[in-house]
Each structure stands twice: as structure tokens, then as C-alpha cells.
């Protein structure tokens, strides 16, 4: 390699981006991370520890630890809030970066795209969800934020402890009508672990888990899943609607697979496990760096010198995103060794 220190631009500072930056820094490669958000970690920065009480390896603490490490590493530049506005290739990547205090240019020798995902907006589903309201229908990501910040679950409408919570899976995933047939992979594990944590702190809370089928989310999945089923009621059905009652509770209607009839139940709170999808700016990022999109809009095949990783490629959890980011960093290193030697 040449004597000058190469630079790798990383677009996106979530779990994959953090992992890529730290991996490169450990190998003596300068990393510049560009992110729209001031705080590193992406969506996962708001994820709560799901220990109940033992560690369940949910990955939330891994994001916190790596975000802290990033700030300590002199070989990593964190540029936020900022966004990529353009790129010219001529002996490297000449990238235009848009910042609040003015635009700037950056010369990079390789690029890693870890732009993450956007959660499905369930406002159009018949569940009564309204983003930003104080209603008692929330997404699982909003429950993550609630538990991460307050440390306990409370009904948004009145701050009361919910006695009965419905967890509804596959909202915006595995839905052919919406053109979103993919599984988001992590929702089942996240919802069950949060339900278990809530019950650990409040044993009186009754949790009901509505699902199509449950995706494996642990190495010892059978043991963990059997443990969840001891206190969490499992219903293999997806509710058709959720209606607010006169006394501010929620009537959930579904086809009971055991009784084989339509039934309704009353809950105090409903949590929607919303699917992962491509970010709205993914097509523009793909155009700027010449990356193909797959049929669902996720990042696909990239040209030489550009690497893609994390949930920008397909839905994946924290651990898989970090592994993907590290793998992309290693590929970038091999590219640099071959092309700058």
C-alpha cells in the first residue's frame, strides 16, 4: 500500500456502520462516518436491555458500547448531522457532503453504505394507530423507547400500568397485499423478550402474542421459546382490527384458531411489531454510488470500491448487522490492498 493513510467513507452510523468503522480503525484505516442523526447507533440507540433478569443477548448494550468506543477513537471522524449529496469517481471517490453549517468535499478511497432501514408506518392499517398521539396503540419501536427511557411500561393516554397487552406481529411484513412479502426477522424475538421483561417487573401484566409463526431468535431457541410460553399467551392469528372503546380500552377482533370462530377481547394496550423496509433515500444513495436495488428496494450489487452492509441490504438484527458491517470493512481493506499497493 502507499504511505498515505487511506480513507473509507461510511454512510450510516447504525450498528453496521459502527462495527465497520471500529474494524477499520483497529487495522489502521481512517474511517469517516456520515449520518443524518447526531447520536450514533441509528434506531438501535433507543433499544432497551431485555434482561429478565439474566442477559438474553438482545444486542442493545453492544450498540451503546460501540457508540462510546467510536467517540474515543482518533482514527474515526463522526460527521453529523450530515448527508451525501453527490459523488464523482476519478482516482477515488470525491464525495459532496451536505451539513447544516455548509457543504464540504471529501476524498475517499472506498465507500461502505450502511444506511439502515425505515420502520413500516401502520397508520393505514385498521389498528387505530396514530403516530405522535397519546393513544394506547403503539409500535414495538415506541415500546423500546419507552422501556429504554422510563424503564417501565405505561399507557400513553393516562400513564397507568396496563393490565393486559396485545402484541401483534407482522404489521407491514409478510404482507402480499402491501407488496412487502419479506419477514423482518427480529420482531418475534424483540416482542417476546419485551413482554417477558415487562412481566418480570410486573407479574400481574397479562401478555397475549398474536402471530403467523414464530421465527427463531436464539441459539437455544426451543428452551427460550418454551420459557416464554409459560407466561405469555400465544394465539396463532393476526387480528383484523383494533377499536377503541368508550372507556379508553381496546377491543381486538380476530379469528380464534382453536374455537374456529371470530372473537373479540379487551386489552389496555396494543403493541404492533412493524416491519423493516428500505429507507426513503435509498434509491438516491444507490444512484449516487452506482449500486443496484433488489426487487424490494434494498441495496444490492455494488461497483468496485463500494460495499453494502446491515439492514440496508435486508432486514437483520443488531448482532447480524454488526457482523455484516465488519465483513464489509474487511472487504474494503482487501480492495484497498489490491488497488493502492
UniProtKB/TrEMBL annotation:
Residues 7-134 form the FAD/NAD(P)-binding domain. Pfam families: Pyr_redox_2. The keyword Flavoprotein does not apply. GO terms for molecular function: 4 iron, 4 sulfur cluster binding; metal ion binding; oxidoreductase activity. The keyword Metal-binding applies. Keywords: 4Fe-4S, Iron, Iron-sulfur, Metal-binding, Oxidoreductase. This is CoB--CoM heterodisulfide reductase iron-sulfur subunit A family protein. It comes from Desulfatirhabdium butyrativorans.
Amino acid at each position: 500500500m502507499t504511505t498515505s493513510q487511506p480513507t473509507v467513507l461510511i454512510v450510516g452510523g447504525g450498528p453496521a456502520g459502527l462495527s465497520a468503522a471500529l474494524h477499520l480503525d483497529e487495522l489502521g484505516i481512517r474511517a469517516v462516518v456520515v449520518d443524518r442523526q447526531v447520536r450514533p447507533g441509528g434506531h438501535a440507540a433507543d433499544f432497551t436491555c431485555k434482561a429478565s433478569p439474566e442477559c438474553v443477548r438482545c444486542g442493545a448494550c453492544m450498540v451503546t458500547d460501540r457508540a462510546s468506543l467510536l467517540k474515543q477513537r482518533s482514527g474515526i471522524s463522526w460527521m453529523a448531522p450530515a448527508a451525501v449529496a453527490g459523488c464523482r469517481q476519478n482516482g477515488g471517490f470525491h464525495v459532496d457532503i451536505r451539513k447544516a453549517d455548509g457543504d464540504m468535499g471529501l476524498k475517499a478511497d472506498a465507500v461502505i453504505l450502511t444506511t439502515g432501514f425505515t420502520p413500516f408506518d401502520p397508520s393505514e392499517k385498521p389498528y387505530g394507530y396514530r403516530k405522535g398521539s397519546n393513544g394506547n396503540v403503539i409500535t414495538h419501536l415506541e415500546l423500546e423507547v419507552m422501556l429504554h427511557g422510563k424503564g417501565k411500561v405505561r399507557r400513553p393516554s393516562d400513564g397507568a400500568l396496563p393490565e393486559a397487552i396485545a402484541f401483534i406481529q407482522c404489521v407491514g411484513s409478510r404482507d402480499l397485499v402491501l407488496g412487502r412479502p419479506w419477514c423482518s426477522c427480529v420482531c418475534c424475538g424483540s416482542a417476546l423478550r419485551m413482554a417477558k421483561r415487562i412481566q418480570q417487573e410486573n407479574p400481574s401484566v397479562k401478555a397475549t402474542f398474536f402471530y403467523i409463526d414464530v421465527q427463531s431468535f436464539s441459539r437455544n431457541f426451543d428452551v427460550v421459546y418454551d420459557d416464554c410460553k409459560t407466561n405469555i399467551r400465544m394465539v396463532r392469528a393476526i387480528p383484523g382490527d383494533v377499536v377503541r372503546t368508550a372507556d379508553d380500552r381496546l377491543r381486538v377482533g380476530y379469528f380464534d384458531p382453536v374455537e374456529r370462530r371470530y372473537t373479540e377481547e379487551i386489552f389496555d394496550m396494543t403493541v404492533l411489531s412493524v416491519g423493516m423496509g428500505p429507507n426513503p433515500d435509498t434509491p438516491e444513495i444507490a444512484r449516487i454510488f452506482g449500486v443496484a436495488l433488489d426487487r424490494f428496494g434494498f441495496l444490492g450489487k455494488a461497483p468496485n470500491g463500494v460495499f453494502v452492509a446491515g439492514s440496508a441490504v435486508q432486514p437483520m438484527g443488531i448482532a447480524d448487522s454488526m457482523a455484516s458491517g465488519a465483513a464489509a470493512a474487511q472487504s474494503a481493506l482487501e480492495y484497498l490492498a489490491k488497488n493502492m499497493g
